[in-house]
Design brief:
FAD/NAD(P)-binding domain, 384 residues, binds flavin-adenine dinucleotide, 5-stranded antiparallel beta sheet, 9 helices
């Protein structure tokens, strides 16, 4: 046995998939997973949904024995402080861990709102964050959620479904208007409001105090609970100081998730990887795509061939309603919303080809959209 072996930094979906894929090809090489998280690997998506609503307590993944079964040594509560790629060493809390191959799957961390008192708001990324938020929600009657991305919309709806009086504030007139268009934003606002949440758009937060949020029109909204869902920043600092190429705060990798440094890979929210179908680098923050990229990195680290080729996709559940979205996520020229009565499909095109599809109760279109994006075909409806 080589006492170096593979080191995976991070125990999210990219890290877990990387370790699992590596093990498919190499069963006699040590694998260590170093993670800052104090918990064993778990599913993040339920944290803003069923877990926050108290409908499930168990978000752990793969069973407690997975690491032992796969011969993966898991070191929780172990934050990596530095990587030394020339020496092939990872440094954490003064200890030095040598490696042969390294996979950085260290994800992203929430960015609090850059306003006075911004750090007073709850954030939501880890299971510990979710436990704190859920416990605080049980003692609260009212909440303000800042930021109407998918996590903000989901958390607001979950809190409202728990009986809290919830206000969701966002700078766009409608949730995610800049990213998905006004019509889609209106649909999102309707779903959020259906859960009982009050949506206040076109509004910026100026200050957070212990029990209120001051808006840019001077109005102060009282809240027992304040949640910031104001975006994330990739955890790329150790890569940058370690000499790897970082662009837009993400670690630059090829379609095999390999950095320019041989034997060093990156995958998931921290990576900027080339997608072979898109034929360009794609920045993505979804569970399944982190899993896909992690699997590619793990196979490559084991010496097998693999490339990231999947069309990105994810589901979001706001209250009782699920939306599904496939897209490259780097812009579109025009969009068309088709209403189906009980839901809708939004087609996004660039250069006469579908680059995104968002569906609500329209699974066939979700599947069709994936194929059209992959094949660079136009939408099946006239675009406005
Ligand atoms: C509440 C919530 C709900 C979500 N819901 C959905 C959803 O419904 N659908 C969807 O597609 N996506 C969803 N996402 C997004 C999805 O969870 C992320 O895209 C995905 O987790 C990214 O995976 P990752 O492995 O790249 O990073 P992460 O899951 O962020 O994992 C990174 C890991 O690295 C560790 N780490 C970071 N820095 C260090 C360091 N220096 N040393 C050691 N370890 C380190 C962290 O502790 C963590 O274990 C949700 C996210 C959240 C927070």
């Amino acid at each position: 046995m080589n006492d170096r072996g593979l080191i995976v930094i991070g125990s999210g979906p990219a890290g877990v998939a990387a370790a699992a894929a590596f093990r498919e090809y190499c069963d006699d090489v040590p694998v260590r997973m170093l993670t800052a998280d104090v918990d064993r690997p778990y599913f993040r998506p339920p944290l803003s949904k069923e877990f926050l609503r108290g409908e499930t307590e168990d978000v752990s993944r793969d069973g407690a024995e997975w690491c032992a079964d796969h011969g993966v040594e898991l070191l929780t509560g172990t934050r990596v402080d530095a990587i030394e790629v020339e020496q092939r060493v990872v440094v954490a809390a003064g200890a030095r861990y040598p490696y042969t191959e390294l996979i950085l799957a260290c994800g992203a961390s929430p960015t609090p709102p850059p306003v006075p008192g911004g750090d007073l708001a709850h954030i939501l990324r880890s299971q510990r964050d979710a436990i704190q938020l859920r416990d605080a929600a049980r003692r609260a009657d009212s909440a303000v959620v800042i930021g109407a991305g998918f996590i903000g919309c989901e958390a607001a709806a979950s809190l409202a479904m728990q009986g809290l009086s919830v206000t969701l504030v966002a700078p766009d007139e409608f949730p995610q208007q800049k990213r998905l268009g006004a019509e889609t934003g209106q649909r999102l606002a309707a779903l959020v409001e259906k859960s009982g949440t009050r949506f206040v758009g076109d509004t910026r937060v100026q200050e957070i105090t212990g029990d209120s949020v001051v808006l840019d029109d001077g109005v102060s909204v009282h809240a027992d609970l304040i949640v910031a869902a104001t975006g994330v920043a990739p955890n790329s600092a150790i890569a940058e100081t370690g000499g790897l190429e970082v662009k837009h705060s993400r670690i630059v990798v090829d379609a095999g998730m390999q950095t320019f440094w041989h034997g060093v890979f990156a995958a998931g929210d921290v990576a900027l990887g080339v997608n072979t179908t898109a034929r360009r680098p794609i920045a993505i923050e979804h569970w399944q795509d982190a899993t896909d990229q992690g699997a590619v990195a793990g196979r490559r680290a084991a010496g097998a061939d693999a490339a990231w080729s999947q069309v990105p996709g994810f589901w979001t559940t706001i209250g009782d309603e699920t939306l599904k979205y496939h897209a490259w996520g780097d812009g579109y020229d025009r969009s068309r919303l088709v209403d189906h009565g009980s839901g809708c499909t939004v087609w996004y095109e660039a250069d006469e080809a579908v680059v995104g599809v968002l569906t609500h109760n329209a699974d066939d279109d979700y599947d069709l959209g994936e194929r059209l994006i992959r094949d660079r075909k136009p939408a099946p409806v006239p675009m406005q």
